[in-house]
Fold these 2 entries.
Entry 1:
Amino acid sequence: MEALDVATVSRAQLVDITAAVAALVGRLALRSGAVHVFVPHTTAGVTINENADPSVKSDLLMALEALIPPGLAFTHSEGNSDAHLRASLIGSSVTVPVRDGILQLGTWQGIYFAEFDGPRRRRVYVTALPGAAG
Amino acid sequence: MEALDVATVSRAQLVDITAAVAALVGRLALRSGAVHVFVPHTTAGVTINENADPSVKSDLLMALEALIPPGLAFTHSEGNSDAHLRASLIGSSVTVPVRDGILQLGTWQGIYFAEFDGPRRRRVYVTALPGAAG
Amino acid sequence: MEALDVATVSRAQLVDITAAVAALVGRLALRSGAVHVFVPHTTAGVTINENADPSVKSDLLMALEALIPPGLAFTHSEGNSDAHLRASLIGSSVTVPVRDGILQLGTWQGIYFAEFDGPRRRRVYVTALPGAAG
């Protein structure tokens, strides 16, 4: 297992960590199988989405904001229950196939750290899951 | 890693790929561990849900449609930001345990390719993740 | 693969299964890699969220309730289409890194079985995915 550091600058932000994950696949010497990318926080997550037009990122954050009806009577005293919900909806990990040491992402896919209660300093754990020998 | 081709005929559609994934578990000679099913697209995903009553599929698609409030000011020029959001909510992969070469799905579970911006021709990557020897 | 039994007492409920999963990591003799936690049901799921303030759990369930607009014309005759939707949004499995035989969860993270159509008796499958030898 290796770890990445991610610094966010806004309350909600998507940070492209694709290149950093690809570099760790090399360091972990994973040739074939899958790589697991895990966020050890409860108000952030990780997702795969489009890496081309940056408006997809802002649209995604706006819609995740609009998804939760206003005026809910949250009781958690830290006032970030909406961020906990978004973290569970987006998920705490993604797993990506690896072949010949290369992430098998689609043409338009990038791996995004998803901050929902920033700005903060965050960590991401990256684990190699080797495939069958064959 | 093996790949499946999936053709969709509607904008939003759930396609049962359980039998195809089970066949690839055999071809990959996976006896024990888990199989990883990955969608390399940004406006589609994969989910596990009921395989018995087909109305569950149509209800799921209708509710995913209704989830996103109308009138959001999306800026992505391709006009499919709603599909990108649904892809991130549903997720780009599922992982299913395998024992004795058999998918350990529950009685009512099927694996569904989830199209949100079809009709299109799509791919699905299937990777064997062997478990411990014991 | 090992299995856990979980009994729920409400229609919607989050049950902390972190300690039970950690115990199975020991029984599976997994030292390094990841553990896969899978729910073989279609109206329940599993998620990772905060294990400290219990109000996060109740806020999460309340918001998942409020997410789905009232008055949708669901057609599934069992009347639990909302539970099927929540299961697909939360997801049927989580995967957590393991190092030196210990779950690499963040300080505030717990693993929660997520019941959406209880009370019921449920199962959870736990599978060891060994990492690279190195």
Entry 2:
Amino acid sequence: MIDRLESLSIRTSAREEIVNITEQVQRVTGASGVRSGMVWVYSPHTTSGITIQENADPDVRVDLLGHLAELVPRKASFRHAEGNSDAHIKSALVGASQAVPIADARLLLGTWQAIFFCEFDGPRSRRVMVKVLGT
Amino acid sequence: MIDRLESLSIRTSAREEIVNITEQVQRVTGASGVRSGMVWVYSPHTTSGITIQENADPDVRVDLLGHLAELVPRKASFRHAEGNSDAHIKSALVGASQAVPIADARLLLGTWQAIFFCEFDGPRSRRVMVKVLGT
Amino acid sequence: MIDRLESLSIRTSAREEIVNITEQVQRVTGASGVRSGMVWVYSPHTTSGITIQENADPDVRVDLLGHLAELVPRKASFRHAEGNSDAHIKSALVGASQAVPIADARLLLGTWQAIFFCEFDGPRSRRVMVKVLGT
């Protein structure tokens, strides 16, 4: 069994931003030598997340970020003194990681799917862990 | 290590619908020969999701779909021109996949748990990938 | 490949509560002998979830539980007769499991991350499954 762990570096440029990291994840997967298995994309941060979403129309990401901001506004009543409780809550809703099957050394994403890093409290320098297990 | 990938076909019959796919996932798991390991249930679509929920009372699913529609209504202000941004956002909230441990060749679901495909923009023909890794 | 499954017992003390289980998960991981691989933390219940969140300031968890209660209130209009539809819906939003990479026999959590069991319909006795795969 091949077991590979790589770290991606991401520089976000806004407080809230969705960054397509599919190519980097595919590159790590391909370089691992795994032809069949699974890959996990994991955010080690508590104010960001990983999602799998449509890549075709960028407005889908605009609507996603906009609606998340409506669902979780920056309320004055939040107790956490850093003022980024909204980002922590969005992180819990979107999730810290995504798992994708690998077949023929390729991510088995659907036609319209891509893997996105979700920044909820940027701009910041972020890391994303990519773990590949398979044969 | 056994590594098995199978695709399930699902035909949904409403715009929003929750379909129990536990038996199909158990069948793939059993046929794989894996007695101990993990299974991933993965939706390759961007307007659907996979959730693990109670199977006993169908009203739980009614309440889940109804409340998701309240949290993410079909707003006229969404920019994505296809008019299904609500479905994309619900997909991000529910998630594209679920992972379940396997023990004694069975899904290690809790007593009340089942695995559900969540249709948010049907009716459509959908696929679900089932990946089994173990021994 | 090492494949280990352990069950944790948790006693929650309120209807809604977030319990740090990082140490127990690290203990199972360490005892498994796995130095590199993945661990899954899985809740077999339908009114609880697993999240990865900040551990430093307890107010982050207060804000998370408080805002989830705003997003999913205990509505009289819910049809599920047990009166805990809010807990089922929160469970679907937070998710039944989390996956964390293992490196050097340690959970590869970020500096501020911890693994939390989310009780949404307690107080109850709960179980959490910990599955470790690796070498």
